[in-house]
Amino acid sequence: MYAIVDIETTGSHASANGITEIAICIHNGVEVVERFESLINPGREIPVFIQALTGIDNEMVSTAPPFRQVAARVHELLKDKIFVAHNVNFDYSFVRHHLADAGFELNCNKLCTVRLGRKILPGMPSYSLGKLCRHLGIDNEGRHRAMGDAAATAKLFSLLLGSDTGNHIKSALKQRSKEQQLPANLPKADVDQLPLVPGVYYFHDQKGKVIYVGKAVNIRKRVLSHFSGNNPNRQRQEFLRNIFHITYQECGTELMAFALEAVEIKRLWPAYNRSLKRFEQTFGIYAFEDQRGYIRLAVDKQRKHSQTVYTCRSLTEGYNLLNQLVEEFELCPKLCFIQKNNETCNGKHGENCACGGHETADRYAQRVGDALRNFKAQLPTIAIRDRGRTYEEHSCLLIENGRFFGMGYIPHDAEIDNLDDLKSHLKPHFDNGYILNMVLTHAERHPFKIVNFRTEVLV
């Protein structure tokens, strides 16, 4: 037995909205054998645009029962049936949420007439309920009213049952089939072609724009996890409605997938990604020559097209590093903007410091150069070499002088003792502190994957 359901609501997500009308048509596989409908008092104002759409206003529902009063009857009708609706996850999420609030648990198999329509009646100009019914000659005597839409969906379902020569309905109801969990607009073929390997996947909207980027150890399993459960909040329901297509990139390892996800989120800025999109103000240590010819070091915000000695994640990190250089190489704290008052220099040389002109600019520049060469020599230049996407290749991420250079894939038998040769195989990316920290942490845990390089440090 099937329960064909339609509801009208005060909004698009169950967690913050109420039901204003519900209709249920019990279908025995041949015809409708029982009907139930009721206006519902949602316990809140109905927005004006929804009143205009449905014709249900606040006055009409003022004397209607709240959902709790009809919950037992609704649950009795649905509990042992297959729940059918046009865009089933929307109706199911509302009914299940409000039944749970009334103390009833609902766990039904589901069928979506949008998804079934695309399979059984391919090539239709539109699969919205109104346009599909008009194209098929199905009358709807109450569009955007619960019973009108439920009755039209019941007629559509009867037509689908009679036209299902490919046994799509039976396949969808198989215990292991997860098709009814999929978003209404997402073809099952997109999910079927997903591999069981590490990688990055992309959700696209109706126009093909990427709206979400995710990483996975197992692409198919991770994608399906987005569609499990019936979270009723607005963001999830809107997110699911906007998924029309999935693409992916395979990666050799989880680390490559993590790094590629970070790169792609920064590149594409998808609407539904929250993490990794926050603005991260980075700072840098700069070296420049002042009007007197002295080399000065300073910590400042990193700016486009500006060359830094070193990129740091915070102002504090930058000043800690500068203080270390001042202490170890007896640099001038005033020329490094650490001491900012007009008092006598508190550096190692005191009154005889370079800031007072007691050391030539050339001599002081030599000490600054020694400090920076020593500092840069301690920055790692390493590659992480690991599994590739096939047996013929290896994955590789490169850190050069303490900065993320890029990543890619190299032949499995390639010798990469030459840094320039390795870089020719990799795709460069902007320095990314998130990826840098991730790669260095991975290197600490898996030292056998590290390829070390010695680089010439120029200042």
From TrEMBL:
PANTHER family: DNA POLYMERASE III SUBUNIT EPSILON (PTHR30231). Transmembrane segments: none annotated. SUPFAM superfamilies: GIY-YIG endonuclease, Ribonuclease H-like. DNA polymerase III contains a core (composed of alpha, epsilon and theta chains) that associates with a tau subunit. This core dimerizes to form the POLIII' complex. PolIII' associates with the gamma complex (composed of gamma, delta, delta', psi and chi chains) and with the beta chain to form the complete DNA polymerase III complex. One of its GO terms (biological process) is DNA replication proofreading. InterPro entries: DnaQ, GIY-YIG_endonuc, GIY-YIG_endonuc_sf, GIY-YIG_UvrC_Cho, Ribonucl_H, RNaseH-like_sf, RNaseH_sf. NCBIfam families: dnaq. This is DNA polymerase-3 subunit epsilon. GO terms for cellular component: cytosol. It holds the Pfam family RNase_T. GO terms for molecular function: 3'-5' exonuclease activity; DNA binding; DNA-directed DNA polymerase activity. It comes from the Bacteria. Residues 196-274 form the GIY-YIG domain. It comes from Mucilaginibacter yixingensis. DNA polymerase III is a complex, multichain enzyme responsible for most of the replicative synthesis in bacteria. The epsilon subunit contain the editing function and is a proofreading 3'-5' exonuclease.
